[in-house]
Amino acid sequence: MSNNADLFKKIIAHCKEYGFVFPSSEIYDGLSATYDYGQNGSGLKNNIKDFWWKAMVQLHENIVGIDAAIFMHPTTWKASGHLDAFNDPLIDNKDSKKRYRADVLVEEYLEKIRAKVDKEVGKAAKRFGDSFDEQVFRSTNQRVLDNEQKITAISERLRKDLENNDLDDLKAMIEEIGIADPVSGSKNWTEVRQFNLMFDTELGSVAEDASKIYLRPETAQGIFVNYLNVQKTGRMKIPFGIAQTGKAFRNEIVARQFIFRMREFEQMEMQYFVKPGEELKWYEYWKEARMKWHKALGFPAEKFRFHDHLKLAHYANAACDIEFDFPMGFKELEGIHSRTDFDLGKHEEYSGKKLQYFDPEDNTSYVPYVVETSIGLDRMFLAVISQSYTEEKLDDGNERVVLKIPPFLAPVKIAIFPLLKKDGLPEKSREIMDLLKMDHHCLYEEKDTIGKRYRRMDAIGTPYCITVDHQTLEDQTVTIRERDSMEQERVKIDQLAAIVHEKVSINKVLQKL
Ligand code: ATP
Question: Domains in the chain and their CATH numbers?
Answer without folding.
Answer: 1-74+198-393 (3.30.930.10), 87-196 (3.30.40.230), 394-511 (3.40.50.800)
